[in-house]
Q: What sequence folds into this?
């Protein structure tokens, strides 16, 4: 396989989780990507893919590379991640819901996490 045939190094949607209490990447956080589909499943979301943050707290490959415009969400399993560290948390999960435009742009949704607070923004 030549270098121009190699798959892209990241998907259209990426995320990064930072543990705000230690200032270090949050390795091992389970993340699920879902798309709003308006289906009859009771909540209108269809899971597309799952991943786990790497040693740098990043997920660079989740979901298909080509996503149509629409609403998507990333669900972070913070309960399991904090429990593995013996840390109680107020937030058993963090769900970020966002809109992907039909412009082909990369969407980066970072999460700054602590046991009793979190914040996010649209990154680059």
A:
């Amino acid at each position: 396989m030549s270098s121009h045939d190699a798959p892209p190094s990241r998907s259209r949607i990426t995320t990064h989780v930072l543990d705000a209490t230690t200032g270090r990447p949050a390795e091992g956080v389970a993340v699920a990507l879902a798309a709003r589909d308006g289906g009859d499943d009771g909540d209108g979301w269809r899971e597309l893919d799952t991943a786990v943050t790497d040693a740098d707290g990043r997920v660079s490959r989740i979901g298909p590379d080509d996503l149509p415009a629409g609403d998507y969400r990333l669900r972070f399993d913070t309960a399991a991640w904090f429990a593995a560290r013996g840390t109680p948390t107020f937030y058993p999960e963090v769900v970020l819901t966002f809109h992907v435009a039909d412009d082909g742009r990369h969407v980066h949704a970072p999460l700054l996490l602590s046991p009793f607070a979190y914040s996010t923004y649209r990154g680059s």
